[in-house]
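Case study B.
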Amino acid sequence: MEKTDCTALTMDVYSRWRRPPQPVGCRRMRTSSSFQWLLLSFTLLYLMHQVNSQKKGTPHDLKCTTNNLKVWDCSWKPPSGAGHDAVYEVCIKNRSRSCNQLEETNTKILALSPGDHEITVRRLHDPRSSMSKFILNEKNISLIPDTPEILNLSADFPTSTLHLKWNDKGSRFPHHSNVIWEIKILRKKSMELVKLVTHNTTLNGEDTVHHWSWTSDMPLECAPHYVRIRCYIDDLHFSGRKEWSDWSPVKNMSWSPGSRTKVFPQDKVILVGSNITFCCVTQEQVVSAQIGNKMCPLIHLDGKNVAISIHNISASASSGTNVIFTTETDIVGAVIFAGYPPDIPQNLNCETRDLKEIICTWDPGRSTELVGPRSTDYSLYESFSGKNVKFKRVEDSINESYQLFFHMIPDQEIYNFTLNAYNPIGRSESTILVNITKKVYPRTPTSFKVKDTNSTAVTLSWHLPGNFAKINLLCQIEITKTNSMEELNVTIKGVENSVYLVTVGKLSPYTTYIFRVRCSTETFWKWSKWSNGKQHLTTEAIPSKGPDTWREWSSDGKNLIIYWKPLPINEANGKILSYNISCSSDEETQSLSEIPDPQHKAEIQLSKNDYIISVVAKNSVGLSPPSKIASMEIPNDDLKIEQTVGIRNGIFLTWNYDPNMTCDYVIKWCNSSRSEPCLMDWKKVPSNSTEALIESDQFQPGVRYHFFLYGCRNQGYQLLRSIIGYIEELAPIVAPNFTVEDTSADSILVKWQDIPVEELRGFLRGYLFYFEKGERGTSKMRDLESGRSDIKVKNITDLSQKTLRIADLQGKTSYHLVLRAYTDGGVGPEKSMFVVTKENSVGLIIAILIPVAVAVIVGVVTSILCYRKREWIKETFYPDIPNPENCKALQFQKSVCEGNRTLKTLEMNPCTPNSVEVLETQSAVPKIEDTEIISPVAECPEESSDAEPENHVVVSYCPPIIEEEITNPVVDEAGGTSQVIYIDIQSMYQPQAKPEDDQENDSVGGAGYKPQMHLSIPPTVEDITAEDDFDKTAGYRPQANVNTWNLVSPDSPRSTDSNSEIVSFGSPCSINSRQFLIPPKDEDSPKSTGGGWSFTNLFQNKPND
Amino acid sequence: MSRREGSLEDPQADSSIASLPHLEAKIRQTHSLACLLTRYAEQLLQEYVQHQGDPFGLPGFSPPRQPVAGLSAPAPSHAGLPAPERLRLDAAALAALPPLLDAVRRHQAELNPRAPRLLRRLEDAARQARALGAAVETVLAALGASARGPRPEPPAAAAAAAGAFAAKLLGFLVCGLYREWVSRTESDLGQLVPGGPA
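Model:
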């Protein structure tokens, strides 16, 4: 606030000072403008000085503030020289009684209306002083509220909450205003700022005490806390300047610790994932701190107090999470329980079971991870009645049942339930609005009873607890009898805790039923549980039908056998006690009465065959309607026996419609193996039917049944069809019995017999005949079905065929024969037999004749050759010896010779030599090695052996190496020996020598060439074995075509080794036998037992053998 | 087990019997009971720490021994005392244990309501301590050295713990003391059993 003149001047100067720079057009005068500015500055300084000088002589610097908008508090500075006793007159223009005299330099004036107001301040009793005029406007007033005062600061230590209380002194303000409070929280003795918050309120013209709370992240016990407050009044009507009040004095909140070390907070329950600070208030040095097993860094507070801060804590176990501080002498700690607020109760459902009490159930949803006193509490609040019930927890139950019982309010049907869930962390709720009459889940009916009304009706009664007087009940009665079940719904008017009665009709007489009941309401919500089942037998009634009847004439045709079936339970209507039978004709009636029930057959001797038989069943109530059947059998000559096979479990029969059949059709059947008359069962079908499926539990697969279809005419039954069939065909159970009728060298004739029907088990479709070569024990005919190529199969489908000739067989060969029968149900077992074909006599004859013929031919050719070459032979072998008598030189006088008997020099009389000298020595005998080379050459001179009577080497190319040390009796006398060596041609070209053992074996085996003319061995040397061997080895050997011959029997070792190793035998040019003069040395000499062969072998050596 | 406890819970019926064979049988029987309870006490402590969370269940967790109101730990000089005096101390400690064990069970019922085995063991332990104490007193009476008058009941506040952690710690200490005193009783009775250690 300034004096008016000063103000005008000042404003003028200010306006000049604030004048903006000139535009660009004035730039050319920039130098002169700078000068002008400088001049003005000096002028201004001068004027300011003058003003200040003038101020000091008058009251000046009027300033006004307000703290309540009602009164302005104005003050000014006294003029210089004014003493403390100066008196001022303050006048406000345009206001009555506007002047006041004051002895102070401040005054309180009532708030002025908006706009400028002139105020004059003049010092009284001072002639030198001039009056100061001030223009006062609200805009120049500062609104500075009074410093607020904290009425109370309290602390809730368990929750670490500070509660602040102060008065806004709103009554001092003329109108409503917004107030902003600023609150400062300081911690520790060093007064560290922890929190600075603003709090908005409104002044309402009255003194109002405000409350503000703040929850500390650190327990308040850990350190002292300080609070200060200030305010700012935001009055919309006030146009002056608004300022914050001063800060209030500090309020202190501290906790006085005892001597013991303590940890804060204790047993805190917090939300999982939140942060928390623990502190240890102690007089000792804290060594460490940990949460669970995890160490935490220490935060030092005042003194030796420490804190730890835990972030994002995880859910605790049941007993909480331990926080432990370890001091030098002790451990202290606290437990924190981190969990979740209660989930919204899910599936809240309220229903009643008796319309007396409402049961509300729910699912608590997510686990809070809190147990015991920290677990969730529930309360159920009904808003219409205002009633509330609380949930009582069973602590030791893990699978808690969450349900609450609420007693129904009389005449109240609509209930609005709110289920509140709360725990130390939070709360939640769920609501449900129910019309309880539509949420009735009745209890299980009890005292359920059944009472007979008549044979087809019973009365059921049961008790149902509950107040159902105002509603209808819907009850369901389950009626069960054998193989059927029926449910019956009945609506019953509800009553109060009473018994309900229902009559159930349309039952079958003499039938066992099981009844049970359950109930709901007509406005269905839930069925009650079923009551206990009650078994009940209805009473008897007369049989509803007569028994199903059939008749058969006895085989002699004199007696009629009457059959009837027991009535089914639904037709007997009770226990059948007996049957009555009557046979009536036009002339007579015969009766049989009181045939007891187990008997279902009766025989009556009738004089003729035209009767009507009537059968009646009787139970305790009465007689059934009669069942009638004609006895006459109408003959049918046109009958064929047909075959059929069942479908699934029955035999399906069809026939053509016959209008003559007026009654019904009857199909009877029996086991075909039974003797006539046989009857297993029968079935009646209506006369308009043309088909029937015959089913019976007695049918068995593989059993032949005989079915007879009868048609009923008025006067009797006529057999229409006769059918044999199987319900299911099976494979024959036995094999056909077969024998071998005839056997030749190349064929076998087999004959078999039929299989009995009982063992056939199906319609015979044919026989399978298998045969292969093989002997008993060696036959490979194991799996006949595998289709092996070496097994020959003949399928005989002509059932009339009873024999089979198998041709193209090999002579004297064992054959394995198998015969099996088959039906559509499969192939039966096999019967097998081994047969050996006879020997082929033609082949044998041929085998004998051919070598004989060859021998004859050879002999003839040899004879011819010898005859034609007889001169040469003679010249060569028997040259003519000249007769010395014809020699002239030696011609003596005939007389001398003839006359002188003493001259005997050239006389050719036989003479006996005294001794024979062998000129050739042993060294001249060729060695084996040499003979190997020359042997091929030596094979030709076949006659040379004869030409060289002694000391020669016989070289053969046929036998394997056999060394026979031959003792020549002649040479032996001279002390020398000679060897006969057999060399196999093959061994010649296979230089590797066999082991001696092998050689011995081979020689013993007798393979290869052997001398073909056996020497006459002295009886002293030969033994029995040798005689046998002689039989096998001696004699003629056919040498032609030897490649096809096998020198050994098929079972000889050589044969099994390799057929390809057949030893070459003989030579094309050596068809003559060779005679050895030297017999075997001893018993160890090679035997020729294995080298023999027979004609049989010759003809049996076929490739497939 | 229950039959044996039942017979021991009514020791006064045998108090007048002081014949030597009967005394030996009584000592042997009480010693057997102490042996059995020593094993049970060990199991109880193991079960207890398993349900208190870390670091109770960690190996090596050994808080400083703090005094438990109404019950002290066996003194080191205990072994040097005469047998009747030792048994007297055993009986006194066993008499003080049941209310403490009951208090621990109540705490645990709040902390671990879903640990029925632990709660049952605590309940059993209180009953068994009572039975063993009574049996020891019977032996004392048979030895002619009856217990010294009625002992004051431990103050109820002694069992009250400020906070769950203190309750856990108290339970740990009580279970430990229970094990120690039962074991000590077994040892003291073992010295009286004919043929036992001198």
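Chain B has a mean pLDDT of 79. The remaining cases will be described in the next quarterly update.
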